[in-house]
Amino acid sequence: MEDNDWSTERLSNGFQLGESLHLQADVVSGGHVPLRLFVDDCVATLSPDRSSSPRYALIDLSGCLVDGRSDDTTSAFISPRPRQETLQFVVDAFKFAGDDRNLIYITCHLKVSPADQAPNPLNKACSFNKASSLWAPVEGTGDICSCCETGNCPLYGGYSWRINPPARWPRRRGFSKAAEAEVSVGPLLILDSARGLWNSSGGLAPARKTSPGMWWFFAICLTVSSGLN
């Protein structure tokens, strides 16, 4: 359990259905080039294998928080960022229909780009604003989010990196594509409730019970062990 300043990591993995999961992604770099972090996609599953079934997309389409498009959701990226190398977002806790384990795993694909590179349809963080019925970016112009509605966003690509990546990065001059990593949190224990089940037709109907002042923080991190020159 955390204060609303995202200052420390939550130690417990238990949540009430419909309460908020506060996730923070960071990139740690020993280099001299400032970096901006993006979350390309996040998927919730019943096992650590992100390709397992059933699965539910929270973030998709190169940075669209698609869970926020559903009715009764409060999911969104936090704006402004605390730092360019950090991205925070909130999703509502849910469980899969018919699952008696009450557990979910969340796996996210992260990438970075130079901080001086303007956000674009490939590198973006977009939330759906229900009041205006429009997608809005954490930074950049609104048009970079238009593909979140049409579904024709470009897919991520470029250099592939994992936690504890190789020691040598491409030099700054050739850094035209984002460095990437895949990270996960879980298992998260979702306590029972009568509502909030993801049904077989693909609809998500989470219970939207809120607890003011109750914040949780899971750090998911891409570590860059050497600098870009």
TrEMBL record:
PROSITE patterns from the UniProt entry: ZP_2
Sorted UniProt keywords: Disulfide bond, Glycoprotein
The keyword Membrane appears for this protein: no
A GO molecular-function annotation: acrosin binding
InterPro entries, per database record: ZP-C, ZP-C_dom, ZP_chr, ZP_dom
Coiled coil spans: none
GO CC terms of this entry: extracellular matrix
Name of the molecule in the record: ZP domain-containing protein
Pfam families associated with the record: Zona_pellucida
Entry superkingdom: Eukaryota
GO biological process: binding of sperm to zona pellucida; egg coat formation; positive regulation of acrosome reaction
ZP domain location: 1-133
